[in-house]
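#onboarding

Welcome to the new folks! Below is a worked example of what a typical request in this channel looks like: someone posts a single protein sequence, and someone else replies with the predicted structure as tokens. Don't worry about understanding the tokens yet, we'll cover that in week two.

Example request:
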Amino acid sequence: MKKNLSLLFLFVFMLSSCIKDELLNSECDIVSAWVEGDQYAGNFYESSQMRLENISSVEKEIVFTVRSLVSLPNSLPVYFNITPGATIEPANGSVQDFTKGPVVYVVTSQDGKWKRQYTVTFKEASLPTRKFSFENYETIESNGNFYHEFYEISQSGERINLWASGNPGAILTKIRSAAEDQPTYCMENGYQGRCLCLNTQDAGSLGQMFGKPIAAGNLFMGKFILENVLLNPLKATEFGRDIDRVPVRVTGYYKYRPGAVFTDKNKKEVPGRIDEADIYAVFYRNKDAQGKNVYLYGDDVLSSPLIVRKARVASLPPTNQWTRFEMFFEGDDADEQILESKGYNLTLVFSSSKEGAAFEGAIGSELCVDEVEVSFEEPDNE
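Example response:
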């Protein structure tokens, strides 16, 4: 009898131990991951991208899609929902630097017997892009003066006259000048291959006579109307080319050196003021209420009510090293029907002097630009 009782107690003890062991979870999964906080929302195209749900139990890489790695903070907390009782290292919600690459997290099961390793990565959104490398140009001769005219090449090999500059107006003040002597030209030793070079110059006695003492180097998508350059210069730059996609971001590389002396429109020195370069883009409706074709000009390219979205680089600090820049389009959504009929225009503008259109800036300011990419929204395939 005693022997049977001993066996019974042993059986109950073993059964109890098994039940206790089973209560310790052996799973070690990340079920969901998210970034929280309004201060981080601007790094994502949509708020839904801040949270990843229903992560597969066989998944080993967790990827957040962001607008840009350049503007991603180097201290960012990520939160996780993990299987009950499990632990995670680094700690849940701890601040990490994802700009240097993936961060490895290890989840340990409640019973301590199992571990699973995850890599958490932040990647830029993969979007359709159009790249401009400024490799293609033609040398134009006019009355003994030469200047460069930039163009693009289509996939079928045809020339696309996408770009314009103020060079045709600048040469009016010169005699027997080379292309490299103009405000806008193609230069060797770019970030890759050749590059765009813009410089602010003295407009000479003719410019001074018409109240236009300087000529800033510029390049833009559109047309230059020579007939307006002296009497109505703000109407000399016709901005925009039609487009059937919605732009979201522009990136590229630049170098910038401001000139020594900043002068106003009367060519008087403005003590203490430093010249600035400018890069911006505008996406706008190209027809008015009556259906008539519309273009933007120097007097309304940044203020027209037809503008749907625009982007502008906040700052281009002086640098003699190739430095990446980026800017995002902000504004309203495009109308799909108007978009399909190419009812929108896009212009991209580069200038060696931010106030060059007002004939203010510093002679000698130089902006070099290369490898510019415009990213567009994914097309709707529904």
